[in-house]
Amino acid sequence: MKTVGIICEYNPFHLGHQNHIMQSIRSIGNEEASDTAVVGVMSGNYVQRGDLAAFNKHARAKMAVNCGVDLVLELPTPYVLQSAEGFAKAGVYILEKLGVCDYISFGSESGDLEILSFASEVIVTDKANTIIREWLDKGLSYAAAGQKAADALMGKNAEVFKSPNNVLGIEYIKALNELNSKIKPITIKRTGGDHDSETGYSASALRKVLLTDNIPIDLMPEAAAAVCMEEINKGRKPISIKSIEQAILSRLRLQSDYSKIAGVSEGLEKRFERYAAKESSIDAVLEKTKTKRYPMSRLRRVLICAALGIKKEDTQEPPPYIRILAMNEKGKKLLAKARKKANLPIITKPASVCKMDGRAIKQFKLESSATDLYTLAYENENNRIGGQEWLISPVILE
User: CB under 8 Å, gap of 24 or more: what pairs does 312-316 form?
Assistant: First the structure.
């Protein structure tokens, strides 16, 4: 039986995600899902675009297992709140250290693995790095400088850097190459809306509907929509960064040194120090901090990192453990296999982290603190208790 890994957010899980899973299984030559195990490395309670996940990680992991994923692992929050490079590198590292994955599958606008692989090689050359440094010195953002390098070295194929899922795919391949991994990349051409568009099978479109207290049943698998309803009935309605705006602003006003916060460089700390403690809304902080050099997605991530106390040192080394969020029977068998091959400690019961080294304990405490802030977004005060990270075991579905 082959195993395919997918780095994901499922915020929330929709029909496009289900289609990607089935196409991934078929692309490795298996017509039946029973011949393939699917592992998801999923962001936790925060997502890479710089926001709170609409539903908590265990609910989203349950959606995934209900809809085709066999084993869901957590991508820890400090690595989620990084650039595409940092996000991809951490996700690939976890799949590699799990020791059981044969493939990694990702969606891309291009759908052309050869061009994406070529791009992943070109963008790390000395020529590319020289061009990138030159444009950074002229005040461009890293993404814009990278595009300039690609334009100079790849010609018309440089177009692949202009689409977000292509960029993530390139970063996945780069990470595989850096690790000298035997995991083989495969890509599925995306159809419908982009992940941040307001149309088609996009998570952004679904979140927009969910935040109006409606469930977009026609865009979600029935089993995923059922989990959404369960969460709402338990007093855990869909949330966003606006749900805890005052709590975040209070933490920003207590922050004294932004230079140590993850994602801060090139003088960005001065802009946050100038505006974060003065403005009366998150939107105002971001608007005042924004410049041509700092894209809004980066600013949102820095803002959340500052609120959570995530520092640069928290992302300088790769994830220290593998945490299980959910699994089914096939996932249990895969986990048993992984326990014999994994090169990182595997956490199923939260208390077991206390037996690990100091870096693992520090990471888990940071995750716990992040969850404590996240839960303040719930309307039902009974769901806002602290310390929940230490109490919840993986979701296990028969």
Answer: 312/260, 312/261, 312/262, 312/264, 313/260, 314/78, 314/262, 314/362, 314/363, 314/366, 315/78, 315/79, 315/82, 315/86, 315/262
- CATH code, domain with 208: 3.40.50.620
Residues 147 and 295 in one domain: no
- Residue-wise pLDDT tens digits, 346-371: 999 999 999 999 999 999 999 999 99
- The residue among 117, 167, 116, 121 whose CA lies nearest residue 141 is 167
Which amino acid would we find at residue 302?
V
Q: DSSP class of residue 184?
A: E
**Nearest Cα residue to 379 out of 199, 213, 227, 218:** 213
pTM: 0.94
Question: Looking up tokens 């999923």, which residue turns up?
Answer: 42
**What does residue 191 show for φ and ψ, rounded to 5 degrees?**
-130, 160
DSSP state of 87: H
Query: Could you read off the pLDDT of 72-106 as tens digits, one per residue?
Result: 999 999 999 999 999 999 999 999 999 999 999 99
Q: What is the pLDDT of residues 21-42, one digit of tens each?
A: 999 999 887 555 578 999 999 9
> Which sign, positive or negative, has the C-alpha torsion 192, 195, 197, 200?
positive
CA dist 289 to 75, 99, 191, 267, 270, Å?
28, 42, 34, 11, 9
Within this chain, do residues 268 and 129 fall inside the same structural domain, yes or no?
no
The token duo for 104 is 């990694």
